[in-house]
Amino acid sequence: MAPVNGTAVKRGRRLAPVCLAMGVLACGETLVDSDYSGTPLFTLQGVVGGPTEAPLEPGTLVTTAMFWSPQGLTARRYDELVEQLGTASAAPGPRPYFMNLFDEPGPQHLFTTPSGARYAIGRVVAYLDANRNGRLDPPELILGASQGFAVLYAPQDLAAGDSPTGKPLRAGWQSFMLPLSCPGSTSGPGPAPVADGDCGVPLGEPCDTDADCNGGVCLAELLIPLPHRMCAISEPPPNGCRQRGSVLIRRGPGREDVWIQGCQSSSECTRGYPYQCDARLLACFPSAEVQVNLNETSMRPFCVSGPPPP
Amino acid sequence: MRAWLAIAVGAALVLPLTVRALPDETWVLAIGHNVGAQGEVGLLYAEQDARAIAGALREHGRVSSRRTTLVLGEDAVSVRGALQDVNAKIRARAGEGKHTALIVFYSGHADANALHLGGTELPLEELKALVEGSAAGVRVLIIDSCRSGSVTRVKGVQAAESFRIDLQDSIATEGLAIITSSSAGEASQESDQLQGSFFTHHFVNALRGAADSDDDGKVTLSEAYSYSYSQTLRSSGQTVALQHPTYSWDLKGRGDLVLSAPADAQGSTGRLRLAEPAIYLITAEREGGAVVAEVSPQGTRRELALRAGDYFVQQRNPSEFREYQVRVAAGGVADLSTLPFQTVRYDRLVRRRGGPAEHVHSFTLLAAGRGPMLRGQGATPQLLLGWGMDFDWGSFSLRMRGMSAGATSADGLLPRRHSELGIGLALQRFVDLRHLSLAFGLYAEGVGHRQSFDTQRLVTGRRAWGAGFGGLLAAERHLGAGFALRLEGGPVAGIFKRAVIDRGAEAGTEIATPLTWWAAGGLVWRQ
Question: Burial of A52 by CB count in 10 Å (0-12 exposed, 13-18 middle, 19+ buried)?
Answer without folding.
Answer: buried
